[in-house]
């Protein structure tokens, strides 16, 4: 998806914003606290209806109270279909519109896929399985139309079984939900595996270019022992689940295992390598989404140069330039590899005011 125009009002320190981005690379320079991350946040909110900084819509409100506004015009690269997306917060709730009609965050998600590489993404390697599952599921959501209905079916059956476990219901009542849980669960697992298999070659190729040679493994533990059918596992674990008050097996317990040279990646690679690994994962996934749907996600990279010396910066920049989708990257100054002549739109942010170098 390509963003043709972006507007915002009173979003954090950005009082008013209007820009026409480049179809591929956009570079945003600015000092600390200038508003770079806020600008990426506006783009992210436009595609997801929420922020990667975890803050609530009230906190995005700038000094010109009440409310804030975010608007974008996007173009489907294959069909040239144009759509407008808008969010408005007027002090109580956020109103979302797609092509002028009332819409939901899910409509935004479907219309404008956006992904971000920012310092918080290190959680994907450093913290629990939920971060790696959500990485994988975001990709499956975009390539597999049946993912969301299946996931809802699964959550519903899981909730019902868990309630019965906690209420001390008898075996027959609990078992009644297991065929549904197992069927939806195994299909979810199959979709995740298919997506991981689809992106793995590009992830490995990306790592070789971005980090160098090494032995890497990406495997999905489904959330139960694969040698047994999920339905059988659920029946066997019923007594233990009753004791714990929740279902212990199933795709809600899945884990994407990342191993470098036979060890868990998080214990083995440097901070800069972690950033490059996450970049390889995101680029491979976004490329796959583009290949399958014809709509490459907009990729945001905050603090592009942070944690990276020049060879890594050069490799990452080359990978971004090879990505067919639109990208936005931020940095403090036009130095290092960003000092080169780039086929890009360049913007500067100062105290929340964004200007284009071409102006
Ligand atoms: N709701 C708000 N209203 C007004 N200003 C805000 C609001 N929320 C945050 N700010 C201010 O916006 C400023 C810019 O934040 P932002 O994170 O976008 O800067 P940045 O350019 O990414 O800086 P850095 O390079 O240090 O990451 C901060 O000084 C912050 O205090
Ligand atoms: Mg920032």
From TrEMBL:
> Which ranges does the record mark as transmembrane?
none
Its GO CC terms are: cytoplasm
| Residues at which ATP binds | 30-37
Which InterPro entries is this protein grouped with? DNA-binding_RecF, P-loop_NTPase, RecF/RecN/SMC_N, RecF_2
> Pfam families from the entry?
SMC_N
Instruction: State a single Gene Ontology molecular function.
Output: single-stranded DNA binding
Cellular compartments annotated: Cytoplasm
Gene3D superfamilies, A to Z: P-loop containing nucleotide triphosphate hydrolases, RecF/RecN/SMC, N-terminal domain
Q: Which UniProt keywords apply?
A: ATP-binding, Cytoplasm, DNA damage, DNA repair, DNA replication, DNA-binding, Nucleotide-binding, SOS response
Question: GO biological process: any one?
Answer: DNA synthesis involved in DNA repair
Q: Which residues form the RecF/RecN/SMC N-terminal domain?
A: 4-353
Q: Report the protein's function.
A: The RecF protein is involved in DNA metabolism; it is required for DNA replication and normal SOS inducibility. RecF binds preferentially to single-stranded, linear DNA. It also seems to bind ATP.
Tell me its family.
Belongs to the RecF family.
Tell me the NCBIfam families matching this sequence: recf
User: By what name is this protein known?
Assistant: DNA replication and repair protein RecF
- The organism of origin for this protein: Fontimonas thermophila
Gene designation:
recF
